[in-house]
What does this fold into?
Amino acid sequence: MLSIKDINVYYGNIHALKNVSLEVERGEIVTLIGGNGAGKTTTLRTISGLLRSKTGDILFEEESIAQIPAPAIVKKGISQVPEGRRIFANLSVLENLEMGAYLRKDRQEIQASLENVFRRFPRLKERIRQRAGTLSGGEQQMLAMGRALMSKPKLLLLDEPSMGLAPILVQEIFAIIKEINQAGTTILLVEQNAHMALSIAHRAYVLETGRVVLSGYAEELVKSDEVRKAYLGG
Amino acid sequence: MKAMRLRNNLIIAVCLAVLYFGIAYAMKQRMLSSFHQVNLYLMGINIIMAVSLNLIVGFTGQLALGHAGFMAIGAYVSAVMTLKLGQPFLLAVLVGSLATGVVGVLIGLPPLRLRGDYLAIATLGFGEIIRGLLININYVGGAAGMNGIPKLTTWTWLFIFTVATVLLIKNFINSSHGRACIAIRENEIAADAMGINTTFYKVLAFSIGAFFAGLAGALYAHYFFLIQPQTFTILKSFDALVMVVFGGLGSLTGSIIAAVAITVVNAALQSLGALRMVIYALLLVVVMVFRPQGLMGTKEFTLRTLLRQKGGSGLHDYRKQVD
Ligand SMILES: Nc1ncnc2c1ncn2[C@@H]1O[C@H](COP(=O)(O)OP(=O)(O)O)[C@@H](O)[C@H]1O
Ligand SMILES: [Mg+2]
It folds into this structure.
């Protein structure tokens, strides 16, 4: 479904991604794990068209998206949940969700998506008119995910959804990610929390200083010595 | 819902008509002193300035400090059109505003492609550069400015342009374009992720704001018939910014109320000379201490809130279904 081939991304003269290639098949949860500054966010922003690669190509459903503008990429069915709870703090929960459907025109189906989001996140429905900035951390993460679902993505890009959340909430969020996937949305999950990410992912890539250093099935990576030492605390 | 909105719009239309004809009548009967008239015109011009700046600063969240520079461009271009080229008033106003809008795109595009405070710095410089340019262009009178501009800004035109500005900006804000701007103000990274072309909308809001500042300048030039580079100093840019902040970032009605109030305060303090600036500054400090979000915050003053009518916001059809 998504195929990244040999991309190199720079910030000025900082070489942030070095010959990165990765594949996501339809229906999968693929996780991209790595420490701080490894290039995870850069990878997602490049897929979304917010950053550009100097080399290689990015294919989505066999079509190159490496040169098309970011809004067109959202329209094609790739939606990103940015890291760090980027919600619209002064807008209500409902207005945040409406914003997620910004590029859609089909009123009726937007309504269906909204009900879908509320079914998945009942807590958001209870707080429909609440100012989003007053939600708890977990609720804000749910809102950011719900908002991304409002664009009806085929591929959902999640950037560190566990960041700054209590363990119990992380479990809840990851259970929801799994549900979203089982309902038919392919997921590329970026995480520092390798343990949680590997527990729900089908496959995984390990990124280190801009390079993919390891990849494979999640259940195999969990057992590998390198991953255990570097990311799972021995 | 529909009937109620229709009725509210009718009430507003009637109020506007009363205001328009009332003042037209008062002017005809010479019931307004020239001092009052000047301030009445300034009110209209300040409303246009504040509302257009609010679109940039309050609704799109981009700090711009050169609104007087845009006003100057509108004033000078339109004055050249009528005074030097003998063109009709409306054409001059249109060309002046459009030229300002185009300059807005040129000035706004480079800094708005970036995030951060580049726009504030660029517009601050721009306002001063425009003044410096004007002083050095002999064709428009240099430091002495342009004198004898035909006095074509009638009460009718002022009224029409002020109301039209408010309505056009209000409609823009309530459209999906306006929602894109608000999303950018709230969180630019999230707006990007929604598929909003953030650079496009920042530049769009900025140049629409510039366009209307140019309109304010054109109306100003053709009422006061004398324009000079020092009319459009940084202080005028700050005046507009003060109105926006005072009224509430993101509230059009707040900007209107603040523009009117500050024009009145300015007029009342005029006789005090330099002391005026001190009192003015103190007033601002007091407002910012007791009401940092401005008079209105991001809320609008509507007939609905005034009459305490019940009912949904009517923003979207599906809102009602959700409730
Ligand atoms: N806007 C930026 N300007 C310059 N360097 C950046 C910028 N964003 C990220 N980087 C650098 O790129 C590298 C990868 O960053 P990032 O993709 O954010 O890592 P991660 O998401 O894995 O923590 C880091 O070395 C970081 O310092
Ligand atoms: Mg990151």
Q: What stands out?
A: Residues A 40-41, 83, 160 surround magnesium ion (ligand 2) (CB under 6 Å). The interface with chain A takes residues 176, 179-180, 182-183, 186-187, 189-197, 298, 316-319, 321-323 of chain B (CB under 8 Å). Confidence is low (pLDDT under 50) at residues 310-323 of chain B.
